[in-house]
Design a protein that fits this description.
Largest sheet: none
Shape: elongated
Number of helices: 6
Mean pLDDT: 86
Distance between the termini: 50 Å
CATH architecture of one domain: Up-down Bundle
Number of strands: 0
Radius of gyration: 21 Å
Order of helices and strands: HHHHHH
Low-confidence stretches: none
CATH class of one domain: Mainly Alpha
């Protein structure tokens, strides 16, 4: 892969709209890591997705311990897993080798990572304090995360459907214009 500048990689890989956390604390690190990772052919988007899952599950192990040091290490690992989760999509966009399977894998592994980390984080605190509110908080986090993605999927389906309809109408108009020009 040809050497690209940081600005070029940002332009090619960053989403036009994203959460403030991603824009401020993830993209600057992810883009720089991407520049290095993209040089190696053996680093694929799916392998980065797998790495994000395993590091995220490692963070869940630290969350479950529940002590302060483990929580800090778990948080750092979780953040790293989130950075890798962003890199997989950026790498696919940069190299043009994204697949439907890769998108599905990313989606499923994101849900698994959030589920395990939320349960481990709140479960670890429950085990330390025996306060049932931590279990309710875990359920709330998991429910809200699932709800967010269900809504996002519905919105995405609607947008894709509308886009397909617009493209069909546009194509029909072009064909009609070409037919009218040909008959003159």
């Amino acid at each position: 892969m040809a050497k690209l500048s940081l600005r070029a990689v940002q332009k090619l890989t960053c989403k036009k709209r994203d959460a403030w956390w991603t824009v401020a604390l993830v993209d600057p690190v992810a883009t720089r890591m991407l520049i290095v990772m993209a040089r190696f052919d053996f680093i694929t988007p799916n392998r980065v997705t797998w790495a994000a899952l395993f590091i995220g599950l490692g963070s869940a192990g630290f969350f479950l311990k529940g002590d302060t040091q483990s929580l800090v290490i778990g948080a750092a690992l979780y953040h790293l897993s989130f950075i890798l989760d962003c890199i997989d999509g950026k790498l696919a966009r940069l190299k043009g080798n994204g697949t439907v399977f890769g998108g599905w894998l990313d989606y499923v592994f994101d849900r698994i990572r959030v589920l395990f980390c939320a349960l481990a984080l709140m479960g670890g605190q429950y085990l330390r304090t025996e306060d049932e509110r931590f279990l309710l908080a875990a359920l709330a986090v998991v429910f809200l995360d699932m709800l967010r993605y269900v809504d996002a999927l519905q919105i995405y389906k609607m947008r894709m459907s509308m886009r397909a309809k617009i493209e069909k109408v546009t194509q029909e108009q072009r064909e009609a214009e070409l037919a009218a020009q040909a008959s003159r």
